[in-house]
Write a structure and sequence with these properties.
The chain is built from no helices and 11 strands. It is mainly β and about 120 residues long. Strands 2, 4, 5, 6, 9, 10 and 11 form a 7-stranded mixed β-sheet that branches. Strands 1-3-8-7 form a 4-stranded antiparallel β-sheet, with no helix packed on it.
């Protein structure tokens, strides 16, 4: 079992940056594909980014490609989301998630474990 705790959210002006962190418990962090999803008020949860177990491959939603970077540190059991050039439409609760299966999915129902979420608000 994995417990995930996000941090780093907050209020930022458009064009600014934030770095989200997700700390995982347990000794098997490196065996999970990790991802970030987000959910804005009144909208469905959507995929943001994912990273493979060893960190060699990353995947991004078109809406964040070139602005966000996902990374992981398997020694610190932490996954990060560096968010640059933030836009008001990036405002959402951001969740990290862990998937025990191989391969990367953009679908939330594939992921086994979820954090509690961290609020990101981008003002115009």
């Amino acid at each position: 079992q994995v417990q995930l705790v996000e941090s780093g959210g907050g209020l930022v002006q458009a064009g600014g940056s934030l770095r989200l962190s997700c700390a995982a418990s347990g000794r098997t962090f490196s065996s999970y594909v990790m991802a970030w999803f987000r959910q804005a008020p009144g909208k469905e949860r959507e995929f943001v980014a994912a990273i493979t177990r060893g960190g060699a491959y990353t995947y991004y939603a078109d809406s964040v490609k070139g602005r966000f970077t996902i990374s992981r540190d398997n020694v610190k059991n932490t996954v990060y989301l560096q968010m640059n050039s933030l836009k008001p439409e990036d405002t959402a609760v951001y969740y990290c998630a862990a998937d025990s299966q191989s391969g990367v999915s953009y679908y939330s129902d594939r992921y086994d474990y979820w954090g509690q979420g961290t609020q990101v608000t981008v003002s115009s």
